[in-house]
Amino acid sequence: SRNLNLLKENIDEMILKIREYKSIFSEPIDVLNKNKDAISNISFKNKKIEEIINYSESKLINIKSELKNNQEISKKYESILSLLEKGFSDIKDIPQQINKLINGEKDILSELKSIEVSISVLEERKSNLEVKLNSLRKKDIIIKSDKAYRKKALEEAKNVRKKANYLEDIFIRMENISRHIAKILKEINRGDRSELENHEIKREEISKMVRYKKEKI
Q: Where would one find coiled-coil regions in this protein (predicted)?
């Protein structure tokens, strides 16, 4: 009878512990039920814990009921009670583990938000770099076009200079020839002063024309 009463006390204590565990788990269960998609692994583990608690509680209630009705089979339930105690010892630290997992999930979400901010900053920088790159490409096209234009203009200037040098050489030759002709005419027509003067006038006209052409060039 004493052992039976002791067993009943132990059973009552176990039932109280079970109810205590259920109250401890009630808040995490609510949290998990609201965030099943975000923390499905924690929700799955919590359901398993809830099943163990419910099963243990029903067994202990049955034990208490049977002990009231039949003292002869009390030894049979001692082994069951031992198993239940072991089960409770196994789940003793589960609430702390759940809290750690939930806090870990919060840390992960915080990290994800930080990463999202970093990604948005990088995307903005990428956009700015693309704008600068497009601007540099346009400038490069303009510079290349300007270089090609300058090169072409330089070649044309060289050609014009060559033509100018060629014409200048022709005019110099013409001036020398006119002087030579005037000299010959002067020697031939020493007796005819008027004819010589006419040739001098022509020579001066040719010289003026040559100088005018040079100035034009």
A: 112-139
What tokens were used for 7?
Answer: 């067993």
- 70 in any annotated domain: yes
Q: Can you give the length of the chain in residues?
A: 217
* 132 occurs within a structural domain: no
CB-CB contact of 217 with 168 (8 Å): yes
Q: What mean pLDDT comes out for the span 100-128?
A: 70
Q: Give the integer Cα–Cα distance in Å for 11 and 166.
A: 126
Q: How far is the C-alpha of 42 from the C-alpha of 49, rounded, in Å? A: 11
Question: By three-state DSSP, how is residue 111 classified?
Answer: helix
Pairwise CA distance, residues 150 & 172, whole Å: 32
In the chain, the amino acid numbered 217 is I
pLDDT band, very low/low/confident/very high, at 95 (cuts 50, 70, 90): low
Q: Tell me which residue range forms the domain holding 202.
A: 155-216
CB 91 within 8 A of CB 24: no
**Residues 82 and 160 occupy one common structural domain:** no
Distance, in Å, from the CA atom of 59 to the CA atom of 87, rounded to the nearest integer, reads 12
In this prediction, residues 128-144 reach a mean pLDDT of 73
Identify the CA nearest to 77 among candidates 59, 91, 94. Answer: 59
Place 129 in a pLDDT band, splitting at 50, 70 and 90.
confident
Structural domain ending residue among the three candidates 77, 92, 107: 92
* Helix segments in the chain, DSSP class H: 2-34, 40-69, 74-90, 94-188, 193-216
